[in-house]
Amino acid sequence: MSSQPLTHHEILALIEPFSRQGYQADLPASQRLDRRLQFRPLTHALESTLGPIVETLALTCRSAAAFRLERRLAAAAGPSIGLVAEGAEPAVLLERVRSVPLLQPFAAGPGFSAGFGGRVAAADGRVALSEAVAHVGEWRLTLEADPVRGMPAEVALVRAATDVVALPEDLLAVLGRDWGLLRPAGEGWSGSVRLRGRDAGRDARTRERLLGAARHLAATFAEPAARFHAAHRRARWVVTLRRLMPLAVATLLLLAGLACTRIDLSGNATLRVLLMSSPPVLMILFFSLRDVPRFELPAAPRPSNAGQWPTLRPTQPGGPVHER
After folding, report:
1. Which residue range is the domain that position 274 belongs to?
2. Residue 240 pLDDT exceeds 70
3. CA gyration radius for the chain?
4. Residue 188 lies in a domain
5. Cis link prior to 310 (omega < 30° from 0)?
6. Same domain, 237 and 122
7. pTM of the model
8. Which residues pair with 312 in a beta bridge?
9. How far is residue 281's CA from residue 276's CA, in Å, rounded to a whole number?
10. Of all helices (H) and strands (E), which one includes residue 46?
11. Is 246's pLDDT higher than 80?
12. Residue 232 to residues 80, 161, 303, Cα–Cα distance (Å)
């Protein structure tokens, strides 16, 4: 990025295409030293359950031929998402981000609202997702997709209130084998979800996964906590057995290795070579997995004795508490 602050003449030239579209520069909020121009928010009153949408633009001038334009859309009854375009001409970037209709990045359903942001690479309105967020009551669920093909997306679940809440680790894992367990992390919970496919297919899967999880959380939090076990008893046992598999496989391999010591291999050179090479092969396979197996002896799932969600607890050092 250029180290020279934006001059008055540069600012006038840069804001010209934006002024023609009704955007006004917010010079006090702009950062001339960082070569960043901020524009005043525009409020769009739309007939939607999301309410009015506030649009804000910010243009970063990395050099005379390299610009980054961010269009942030904040729904009154929903999340805030960003649409980003990069290129050499601010007027083209403005046209590109404006090719995405105001309501297109949003979705809503009973008890939740969601938004999807990312990079707009062309003027066809298609967004390469990098931001997926859902609001479920006072909860915020986010999926951060890794651009590397095959890598799982990071999941974060945070509650707006400061009280600690007890949540089952398999709250999202009951949705299917692609979903991981929730672990306490900072002020909320973190997990992961596998996203198959690439490009548009991966974006569609990200959208599908977020909306499915938002519907699940909205339905779950709308009922007493004890109903979670009754509604997902079979799925919870499947998750428990899945968690037990790495330890079970390791135990079977150990027993098989002990059994092999009792076999006379003096007359079978091929089998002897296979058995001797199996430990390093298994080790290579183990460390080549995307998700390294977790060796644990999980407790059997049991119903909660709590009342309505969320179960409030006093804030404690060490992060949130969780239930099985």
Report:
1. 233-298
2. yes
3. 26
4. no
5. yes
6. no
7. 0.80
8. 165
9. 10
10. none
11. no
12. 32, 27, 10
